[in-house]
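Example 9 (inverse folding). The structure is encoded as follows.
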C-alpha cells in the first residue's frame, strides 16, 4: 500500500491556474489525480457510471469514495445535488468535489444530517495543501491507508459528532436571537404607540391652551366694552438697572398716543445698518442670535455668547432702540414678558423683530 507524499501536495499547492487549466478534464488530470496519488491511491476507476473517479478497489465494504471534478473556479454549491445522487448510488463513505481551487469532503451516510449540505466534514483551499497540518488532516480522511484501516470511518464519526454539536449550538443561537429580536420589535411598537398617544395628547392640550387664551381675550374685551372703553394694560413702574429698565420699556411699548405716532414715523433698519454700520458689540450680539438659531434669548445668554459683560450687552442692545422716540429707528429688539424665576436664570428675554430676522440670518450665518 502506497504511502502519502507531502512534497507532491506542496507542489500542487504552488501550481498556477494556467498550469492546472480551466476545463473540467484539465482539473481532473492536472489536480485531482495527482492529489489522490499524493494521498496514496494507486488504483483509480475513471468514468465509472458517469462519475469522474470512484475509489473502491482494495478497500473494505462501505469504505468507498466518489470524487467529482468541475471546471476551475466553478461554484461547487451548484453541483451538490449531483454529488449527493452519485454518493447514494455508490453507497460510499465519502464524497469529494473540487474545482481546482477548493476541495470539499462530505459524509453522505450521516444518519442525523437534515440535508446533504450539512454533511460537510472538511474543506480547504488548494494553497492550504502546502501546510503539512492541513494536508495530514486531509490524509486522515481521504488517504488509501486511512480508508482501508477504518481510521477514516472513525474520524468521520468523531467529526459528525463535532459538527452536529456546532449545528445544535447554531440553531440555539438563532432561536435566542429570534426571541430577542421579537421582544425588541414589540417594545419598539409599544414605544411608538405611546409616542403617538402623547403626540395626540400634546395637540389636544395645545388646542385647549389656545381656547383658554381666546376665551380670556373675549372675556376681557367684553368686560371693557360694557364700560365703553378700549382694553387697557396696567402701567408698570419705572425702575433702574438693565432688567428693570427693560420691563419699564416693555410697558411703555404698550402705551398709545404720541408713542404710537412716533413708532409709525420711525425709519426702518436697512441692511447696511445691520451690517457695516453696526458697532462691533452689536455685530457680535446679532451673530449670537443666529448661532443659537433663535430669535429670542435671555440677556445673560446674549452676553455669554457674545463674550461681553451684561452691562456691555445691555448698552449695545439699547442703541438698537428698545423704546421708540420721535425721529428714531423703529424697534429692532423687543422685551418679552417673563416670570421672576426665568428672569433670574436667563435675564431679560430679548426678541429680534421677525421683520428683520431673515436679513440678520443672511448677514451673520457662518
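The amino acid assigned to each position is listed next.
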Amino acid at each position: 500500500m502506497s504511502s502519502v507524499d507531502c512534497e507532491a501536495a506542496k507542489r500542487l499547492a504552488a501550481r498556477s491556474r494556467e498550469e492546472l487549466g480551466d476545463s473540467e478534464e484539465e482539473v481532473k488530470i492536472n489536480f485531482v489525480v495527482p492529489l489522490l496519488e499524493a494521498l496514496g491511491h494507486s488504483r483509480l476507476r475513471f468514468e465509472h457510471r458517469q462519475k469522474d473517479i470512484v475509489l473502491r478497489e482494495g478497500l473494505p465494504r462501505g469504505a468507498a469514495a466518489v470524487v467529482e471534478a468541475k471546471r476551475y473556479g466553478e461554484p461547487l454549491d451548484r453541483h451538490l445535488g449531483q454529488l449527493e445522487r452519485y454518493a447514494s448510488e455508490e453507497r460510499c463513505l465519502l464524497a469529494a468535489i473540487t474545482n481546482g481551487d477548493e476541495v470539499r469532503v462530505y459524509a453522505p451516510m450521516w444518519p442525523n444530517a437534515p440535508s446533504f449540505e450539512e454533511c460537510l466534514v472538511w474543506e480547504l483551499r488548494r494553497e492550504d495543501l502546502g501546510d503539512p497540518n492541513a494536508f495530514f488532516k486531509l490524509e486522515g480522511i481521504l488517504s488509501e491507508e486511512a480508508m482501508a484501516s477504518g481510521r477514516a470511518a472513525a474520524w468521520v464519526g468523531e467529526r459528525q459528532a463535532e459538527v452536529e454539536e456546532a449545528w445544535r449550538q447554531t440553531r440555539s443561537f438563532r432561536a435566542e436571537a429570534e426571541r430577542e429580536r421579537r421582544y425588541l420589535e414589540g417594545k419598539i411598537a409599544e414605544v411608538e404607540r405611546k409616542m403617538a398617544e402623547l403626540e395626540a395628547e400634546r395637540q389636544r392640550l395645545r388646542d385647549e391652551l389656545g381656547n383658554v387664551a381666546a376665551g380670556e381675550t373675549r372675556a376681557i374685551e367684553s368686560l371693557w366694552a360694557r364700560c365703553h372703553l378700549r382694553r387697557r394694560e396696567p402701567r408698570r413702574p419705572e425702575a433702574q438697572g438693565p432688567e428693570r429698565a427693560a420691563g419699564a420699556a416693555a410697558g411703555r411699548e404698550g402705551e398709545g398716543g404720541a408713542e404710537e405716532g412716533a413708532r409709525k414715523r420711525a425709519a426702518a433698519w436697512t441692511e447696511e445698518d445691520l451690517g457695516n454700520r453696526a458697532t462691533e458689540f452689536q455685530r457680535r450680539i446679532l451673530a449670537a442670535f443666529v448661532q443659537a438659531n433663535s430669535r429670542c434669548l435671555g440677556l445673560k445668554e446674549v452676553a455669554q455668547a457674545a463674550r461681553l459683560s451684561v452691562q456691555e450687552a445691555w448698552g449695545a442692545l439699547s442703541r438698537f432702540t428698545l423704546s421708540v422716540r420721535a425721529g428714531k429707528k423703529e424697534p429692532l429688539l423687543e422685551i418679552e414678558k417673563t416670570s421672576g424665576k426665568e428672569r433670574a436664570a436667563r435675564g431679560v428675554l430679548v426678541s429680534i423683530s421677525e421683520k428683520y430676522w431673515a436679513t440678520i440670518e443672511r448677514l451673520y450665518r457662518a
